[in-house]
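Subject: design request, 237 residues
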């Protein structure tokens, strides 16, 4: 009888331990279910969250870069989704905007754009090309966005690293190709084009100027400057 009792006790203990493990797992925050956000004009779909090196990146907004010649209709060039490291961006968010920031507060006086530009957290831009770009056209597009750091007045290291960044994108792209630009919390830059990753310079100032191409007051597109941070309030979750 004593042996049977001991076996019963051990079996009960195992069940209790398993139940405790399952309860602990259930209590842990689970990753958000993946969803799709559509850029309305192009129909391009961007999944959120994206997992990069084991880190959840949340989509802040989407936009469309177009070009217009004279009175001709606008020609769509690429759609873009802007992501941030959710956990990393969530930490400074309340300190800057209070515990209950309103949408009006976030979108006024460039607060949303500056939060992303100056925040020390990972950022990811996903560009989907709708029109083909020659490498010369792609370089010209990015050079125009980085014009301030490519002049003789810019610090030599910053200018040199900007040129290195541009060399990472020295190939033609087809309609349907995807370009990813990633900067981590320390300013390390990486690009991925057509599935091929290329490490870039480690320069926090250049990283900020890269995002200023789309979020800065003199960026490539006024519409994208707003729409790329349109969902910033996701960091309240």
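Subject: RE: design request

Done. Sequence follows.
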């Amino acid at each position: 009888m004593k042996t049977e009792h001991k076996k019963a006790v051990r079996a009960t203990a195992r069940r209790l331990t398993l139940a405790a493990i399952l309860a602990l797992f259930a209590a842990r925050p689970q990753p958000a279910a993946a969803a799709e956000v559509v850029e309305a004009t192009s129909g391009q779909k961007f999944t959120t969250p994206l997992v990069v090196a084991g880190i959840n990146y949340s989509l802040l907004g989407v936009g469309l870069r177009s070009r217009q010649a004279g009175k001709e209709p606008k020609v769509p060039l690429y759609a873009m989704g802007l992501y941030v490291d959710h956990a990393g961006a969530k930490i400074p968010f309340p300190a800057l905007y209070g515990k209950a920031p309103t949408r009006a507060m976030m979108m006024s006086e460039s607060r949303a754009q500056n939060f992303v530009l100056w925040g020390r957290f990972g950022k990811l831009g996903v560009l989907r090309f709708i029109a083909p770009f020659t490498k010369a056209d792609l370089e010209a597009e990015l050079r125009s966005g980085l014009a301030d750091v490519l002049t003789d007045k810019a610090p030599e290291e910053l200018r040199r690293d900007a040129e290195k960044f541009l060399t990472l994108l020295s190939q033609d792209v087809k309609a349907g190709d995807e370009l990813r630009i990633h900067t981590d919390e320390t300013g390390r830059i990486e690009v991925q084009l057509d599935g091929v990753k290329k490490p870039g310079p480690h320069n926090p100032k250049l990283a900020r100027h890269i995002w200023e191409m789309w979020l800065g007051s003199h960026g490539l597109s006024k519409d994208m400057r707003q729409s790329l941070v349109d969902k910033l309030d996701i960091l309240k979750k």
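The first strand starts at residue 35 and ends at 38.
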